[in-house]
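Predict the holo structure. Ligand: C2E.
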Amino acid sequence: MSPTIYAALVDSLFMNPAPMIFGAFGPAIAAAVVAFVTADVWCWLSVPLFIAVGVARAYQMYRYKRRNAGLTVSEAVVWEKRYRIGAIAYGLALGIWGVTVLMRTDDAAAHMLCVTTVVAYTSGGVGRTFGRPNIFHLQVLLGCGPVFVALIAFGGIYYYALALLSFVFFAAIRRLTSSLQRIYVNAWIAREREAALVSQFDTALNNMPHGLCMFNVDGRLAVMNHRFSEMMGLPGEVVLRGVHAREIVAECRRSEILAEDSANLILSEIENSQAGEIITVEPHAGMRALSWTFQPMAGGGSVVLVEDITERRMAEAKITHLARFDELTGLPNRVNFRDEIERLLSHAQDATSAFLFIDLDQFKQVNDTLGHPCGDRLLCMVADRLREMMRTNDFVARFGGDEFVVFQRNITSNEDAASLARRIVERLSERYEIDLHLVEIGASVGIAVTSPSISADVLLKNADMALYRAKADGRGTFCFFREEMAETVEARRILELDLRRALADEEFELYYQPLVNLKSGRISTCEALLRWNHPERGTVSPVDIIPVAEDMGLIVDLGRWILRKACMECMKWPDGVSVALNVSSQQFHQRDGLREVRYALEVSGLPAKRLEEVEITGSSLLRNTQWTRHALTQLSNEGVRISLDDFGTGYSSLSYLHNFPLNKVKIDRSFLEGIDTDRPLTLLRGVARLSADLGMSVVVEGIETNEQLELISADGTVTEAQGYLFSRPVPATAIRQLLSASHGRRPSENNLVTLPSRSTG
Ligand code: C2E
Ligand code: MG
Ligand code: MG
């Protein structure tokens, strides 16, 4: 039995105070009447006994009723004990009185009154004491037991019959109390279950993510969970049973959860809801998105479920946005742009528009050297600049990577597109400041102009070809699409395929061109120069190969091949002769470049001091970056010597000379043009002296005549010379012969050697 039920049973003992008080004084009156009529002194004694016990029990009852808190189990134990004492005392009093009346008087009427009183009192006890039958049984035993014995003892057929009947009556009443207790306990168990069920239902109802309301058939509220009132911002007084749906909906209007039209719709649904009806109220003007479901109930009325779908709607909107916009820059993406162009093209057949395909130059270097976060920032800044430049009609998007596109609508002539392209190139080439780095990039633009019935795909392809041309024209420029470009692009595509295959099939070869030391007259270094022996194209110049390989990203693999091949070849040369390599800027920025060099040296066994890396200065834009300096310093620490190639041309700057750990400067052959006149010679000598003063050895490239050689070697600052005068670049076998000739021969008097020149690639 659960503690609650036990407490309830004890509580039932004290349930009806009035019958108990009356029951307590009833036998006292009966005893007084019998004593008066029979004038038996002993009978009088029972009267105060009944009164005393009756008063005590009534007092207990009063005290019990005065407690106002619920009954705990320990209290129930105490109160049960008190009740038991009272019941026993009263039972004893009854027994004593019964025996006294039956044994001391002969008055049949007194006997009748006595037996009737005992029976009446006992049957009254059933209704009160059934909760604790043991107490009742004890009371019956103490009260009725002596009367039963006294009836037998008195003797006579009536008394025996009375004894028998009262015994049967007491036995029956005993069973009655037990079954009454069972019924009462079962009722309590059912009540407890129901309470548990109600609390579970309540918990479920108030913890569900949905708001829920049940309305009766007359539209009045039966149940509402907390979530509903919370979602609708309903004040306490509205959340009452019996409130009409109309008032609740009006309150939702007041708290601006529902707009007027939605509120009317919802009310009519509650009043005559169809099975499974769903209404979604989309968020507008700061309202939340709610999904309402109406379900009619079996006996009339309806259940309303409300789900707050604002977050889901926002997530869906975000997904849709992500699918159509570039996350980084917020610009429309390729899919979005294509759809839009398709739509514009189909709507404005007769208007001419231009499609500008923009590609950033040197973006990869920014990513490689400053890291991706900087690259990302740069892309955002580019996007901002493009946005600022657009007219409201124009449409800009990011295609991915460093590719942007602009759709310039309704142009009057090609000049409109050209001028926009020009402005884009200029604006995007202006400096960017990213995390204290000053970054400069360029942009190339390919333009395709719409024609009637052109598709978005063709337009895109054309602009792409024009862009390709713009890049090939030296980047930082724009180019319109022309029909013949398709052929060039195809040719380039074939070249790329060929190059890839050539690397796999080892169609490349290294030629070597000597650098001659002007003091010793001997070959000090040989520069490795790439050649491609193509079955149909013939020998292809590196000038045509390198930029394509760079664009394709093939340069890293190609560079690795050159590095290993050159180191192996150098091992076959006399000890003092080094090998010089041309390194493309892309290769140079590759992260594991140093490891590649170490590996090549290790595999070939070539000492690091015999390897000369010749930096190619061309597209290295981010001057003085820490990474460049760091990479060069590491190589230099490794023992590899660093040369600066083509000094004095294009991008090379004097600041290179003190910013990087250079060992050698190679003065470009353009300095030799018109060297027989004063100024170029002064310039060349000045540069040579400056380099020599900074501790670097100086090479002059492109020496073709003895006069040139004499002029550059006159003041002794130039340490080495390279050019057709000594030798053209030659295959490996030929360079070995040259080397043995150079190193086998003693230097001539004026320390100059003129090696036989050869005509090769
Ligand atoms: P570079 O490094 O300045 O190489 C010198 C270029 O000048 C070579 O052209 C060479 O043949 C040429 N040359 C040498 N002496 C004379 C001369 O007296 N007169 C004239 N007119 N030219 C002379 P080449 O072999 O066609 O190479 C062109 C450029 O291609 C190289 O310029 C270098 O920048 C690049 N290159 C060559 N091989 C490689 C390579 O393996 N890797 C990389 N990344 N670039 C390479
Ligand atoms: Mg070179
Ligand atoms: Mg050069």
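The chain has four domains: 3-191, 208-313, 325-481, 509-739. Confidence is low (pLDDT under 50) at residues 618-624, 746-761.
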